[in-house]
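writing this on my phone so excuse typos. first protein, seq and then structure
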Amino acid sequence: MANRAKSSEKECKAALNAVGDALYVIGGKWKLPIIVALLEGNKRFNELQRSVKGISARVLSNELKQLEMNGFVKRNVYTQAPVVVEYELTEYCDTLGEVLYALHTWGAMHRDKILGRGVEVSTEPSLPHAATAAETTTVHH
């Protein structure tokens, strides 16, 4: 962190606003597990509820509405008899790919750190396949 350039107050505020917006949209206990469950394919409400262990129907309904409002989930209603409602991820949700990968990578590293295991950590924000041995350091706890 010592080699980071100083940001202006305006740049810092803009960055914090952007992170705050992202956390508002995908943060919380249930949004990412719902998205991950839908990565397996389209699901009806009850299938989705079974896939996301511990979520109540009311909370799932509210989370799906928020995900739909923010453009991550599409609700498809098929008017056959009986009416079928299915949820699917939108193309816009694909923009979360690198974010999910970064959260996964950081979360695994953090878990290893907290559990006291050494772990290789890239000092670059690039994907691991692009990192060289010179860009990594070993964390020991």
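second protein below, same order as before
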Amino acid sequence: MRHILRRRERLTDEWRYLGEEAADADPLIVPLAQLRSDPLRWQARSGALGARLGPADAVEDLAPLLPRLALVALEFPNPGDGRGYSQARLLRGRFAFRGQLRATGAGVRQDQAFLLARCGFDSLEPPPGTDLEAVRRAFNRYSVAYQPGSAQVALRQQRFGPFQGAPVSAPGDSSPKG
């Protein structure tokens, strides 16, 4: 039984990987090469479908399949391989993927949890034996993020809290008021 962190909560993973025992209605994660080799087979599947991308896989190859996918798992084979961060930003930004984005592999570590979330990951699958509670606590290691990232609270609000009595800006108006 595999456990993951999804939106900072420890959960039993309902998804299965290709090769694990799974019924047709079970959520299934399939490697990109398999999805591309027989797309009609996977499109016809009744259960939720996910794709697994390795660091060398091009996100662009996944684009035509994204509307059918509920999850994309990006592999981090070691802590020094950061290509999954770029893949995540492309999926969330350029391709507007709104499904579950999962970081998986030996490179998913406690010290990277905050940065993974900033790039758009909402699900982490660290290697077996990892203390998931320590990984969960790592999300709160930093209280303010200065660089742009996935949807976060505005920097001003992070540092100073909501400004009471602030004038309302018109949509698209970024000029300071007051």
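The longest helix spans residues 83-92. thats all i got for now
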